[in-house]
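Researcher: I'm preparing a figure for a lab meeting and need a structural model of a single chain. I don't have an experimental structure, so a prediction will have to do for now. The sequence is pasted below. Please return the structure as C-alpha cells so I can convert it later.
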Amino acid sequence: MAPTELAAVGDPNNLAALRPVHVGLFSPFTRFWHATGSVGLSDKSGNSAARGEALSLDVERKTPHDRLSAGIAVHHESSQPPGGTFQATVEKYFGYLRADLYLTPQLFTFVLTQQERDRFQDLALRSTYTAGLGLQAVSTPKTDVRFWGSAGFTHESCLTSPNDQNAVAVAGYSLSQRVGPATLAWRFEGAPSLEDLSDYHFRSDASIGTAIVAGIGLQIEAINEFNNRPQPGVKKHDMLLTTTVTYSIGH
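Model: Understood. Here is the structure written out cell by cell.
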C-alpha cells in the first residue's frame, strides 16, 4: 500500500496512540470530509400573513491531492394579502457539483456543473457546465483562498420566453476565513457570453457563521445576482438575505 493511501488517526501529541488507517473515498470521514446543513423558517400572522423557508446542504471532501464539493439550496417565501390567498414571492433552487484535481500544491484543474431555477427570473432551469484551471493562493487551517478561470456552455430553459444556449467564460474566486468561532465565506463568479461580452451575469454569495455548541451554529448569508440581459419584464438585479441555524460535522 502506498504511503499516500494511509492516514494517521489519534492524538498528535502522543505518537504511541497514532494508528494507521486506509484512505478511501469516505474514510477517514472526519479527517477529509466536512458537511453543513442549514434551515431557516418564518411564519407571520395577523393583519398580514407570510411564510418562508430557507434550506441548504453543502458537502466537501478535501485532501492534498483533490477536492470534491457539492451543494443544494432552496429558498421559498409566500405571502397572503388581507382577504387573499397565499402566493409565492420567492422561489429559488440552486445545486452544484465540482471536482478539483491538484497538479501541484498551488495549481489545479476542475470540472463544474451548476443547476439553477428561479421562477421570478423566468428560469425554469439554467444548466451550466464548465472546465478550467485554478490557483490555490492560500491554504492553511484557518484561511483558504482560490482563483479560477474556465470555459463551457450554459443552457437556459425559460418559463415564458424562448430557450437560450451560450458558450461562456467564467472567472471567480472563493475565500474562507476563520476568526475564533466565526467563519467568513465569500464566493464570486462572473460569466460573460463568448459570443457577446455585453451579455453577462454574476453571482456573489457571502456569509458569516458562528459555532454555538456541539456543531450547532448561526449563519447570515447574502446572495447577490446580476444579469445584464434578463428576459423581458425581469429586473437585472436580485438580492436575497437569509438567517439560518446550521449543523456541521467533519473536519
